[in-house]
Amino acid sequence: MEPVGFAYLGGGLSIGLAALGTGIGMGILVGKTVEGMARQPEVSGLLRTTMILGIAFVEALALYALVISFLLIFK
Predict the structure, then answer these.
(1) pTM for the structure as a whole
(2) In a 10 Å sphere around its CB, with 0-12 CB exposed, 13-18 middle and 19+ buried, how is residue 63 labelled?
(3) 62-71 long-range CB contacts below 8 Å, 24 or more apart?
(4) Where would I find the H helices in the chain?
(5) Do 11 and 70 meet the contact criterion of CB atoms below 8 Å apart?
(6) Tens digits of per-residue pLDDT, 35-49?
(7) What domains appear along the chain, each with residue ranges and CATH number?
(8) What is the mean pLDDT of the chain?
(9) Any residues with CB less than 8 A from the CB of 66 and at least 6 apart, and which?
(10) What are the φ and ψ backbone dihedral angles of 2, each rounded to 5 degrees?
């Protein structure tokens, strides 16, 4: 296999695994937030705000992986 092929493989694996991990992480995050809202409806506004902030941080990891995969492919 040529070095370019390894770069494509590394780029694809990096974004694929990052997307898988962030998807699982966001699912757990939203699920636990909904459980907390069902348990204590009076704090649902605070939980929603915290959840959106947490999703933004988790999604940033996927964006970093996307940048890394582009660097691997186009370097």
Answers:
(1) 0.83
(2) exposed
(3) 62/15, 62/18, 62/19, 62/22, 64/18, 65/14, 65/15, 65/17, 65/18, 65/19, 66/15, 66/18, 68/11, 68/14, 69/10, 69/11, 69/12, 69/14, 69/15, 70/11
(4) 3-39, 44-74
(5) yes
(6) 999 999 999 999 999
(7) 3-74 (1.20.20.10)
(8) 93
(9) 15, 18
(10) -80, 160
